[in-house]
Amino acid sequence: MKRALLPIALCALACGKQTFLAAAFVQTPAMPNPANPSQPFPQFQVMTAYFGSIDTSNPTNISADLLSPITDATASVWFHHMGTGGADVDQDRWLQTGWTSSGGTYTLNSNDQPQLTFEDTPYTLMLQLPGANGETFGARLAPGQPSDIVEFQNSSCTVLTVTTPRCRDAQVSQPMTLTRTDAAAAELAPAFVAVGQIDPANPTAQPQITYKTAPDSAVGLLGFVLSDRDFRQPSFTVPGSAFPQPGFYMVALLTVQQGRVSGNTFVGSIALAATGKAGIVHAQ
């Protein structure tokens, strides 16, 4: 259906250059620390926008060669933070600092901008072109309900006499199956898998990603628009290469909620928010 609808929609638009926006907001969940329970691994958030122009002169031929990055936009995100009390109060947050950009990719993460929290509230991403009257393009992202991983729900492992929940022992370079707790649902939401090596001695460090299924480019996200069937599976197999050496790894299953993009963008533009559950693999 998606493959059929996209060319039809394109034909209804004026041919030529259009603006393409692919936005993704991803959270890796907090996890216990197998070596030091008093210092758990915190949540980590990252928002990414791929921004460029796309040539739609031939609506039946949309490919990577037709994408050109827009590198001079100003990125920001607005949302209402729901405070937890004390010094952390309810407030509207408009985050304009901490962004990095490269080749049309604009990124903000919670290490560089601690006010980027992941909450049950809508987020409005804005990309404004230069000049006093520069046109603004945007996306609205709304996190959904995560699915859990069956294999981690009742698992534990003992490390240095400390018993850690949601932890599994495994052999280096051995594959692993992840089964969704919502596998029996009539219609599964898309989901991404991410694996990252973590350091119990430095829990605030960003995980070093060793495997992921989420599209990580404008072209990949454009392909997701065309067909997300491969991401709507009841279970996923993580290859052994995701655990290349002994150590601790975060394994996350991130359920995807599709948002909206502004009407002045290309019809194939997309906005995704992904949150989920995670466990720890102790590879030996």
Separate helix tally: 3
What Rg is obtained from the alpha carbons, in whole angstroms? 20 Å
Number of domains: 1
Uncertain runs are 1-14
Please state the oligomeric state of the protein chains shown: single chain
What is the percentage of strand-forming residues? 35-45%
Q: Percent of residues in helical segments?
A: under 10%
Pairing-aware structural class of the strands and helices? Answer: mainly beta
Task: Report the major sheet.
Answer: 10 strands, mixed
Total DSSP E strands: 19
CA(first)-CA(last) distance: 45 Å
The pLDDT mean sits at: 88
Helix-strand pattern, N to C?
HEEEEEEEEEHEEEEEEHEEEE
- Name the overall outline: globular
Explain the overall architecture.
Strands 1, 2, 3, 6, 7, 12, 14, 15, 17 and 19 form a ten-stranded mixed sheet that branches. The chain is globular and about 60 Å long. The chain has helices at 2-11, 150-153, 218-226, and strands at 17-28, 44-55, 67-69, 74-81, 91-95, 100-102, 105-109, 123-128, 136-141, 156-159, 162-165, 167-170, 176-179, 191-198, 208-212, 235-238, 247-258, 260-261, 270-283. It is mainly beta and 284 residues long. It starts with a helix and ends with a strand. A hairpin with a 7-residue loop joins strand 8 (123-128) and strand 9 (136-141). The chain has one domain (2-283). Helix content is 8%, strand content 43%. The longest helix has 10 residues, at 2-11.
Architecture blueprint of SSEs:
Elements: H1 2-11, E1 17-28, E2 44-55, E3 67-69, E4 74-81, E5 91-95, E6 100-102, E7 105-109, E8 123-128, E9 136-141, H2 150-153, E10 156-159, E11 162-165, E12 167-170, E13 176-179, E14 191-198, E15 208-212, H3 218-226, E16 235-238, E17 247-258, E18 260-261, E19 270-283
Parallel strand pairs: 1-19, 12-19
Antiparallel strand pairs: 1-2, 2-3, 2-7, 4-5, 4-8, 6-7, 8-9, 9-18, 10-11, 13-16, 14-15, 14-17, 17-19
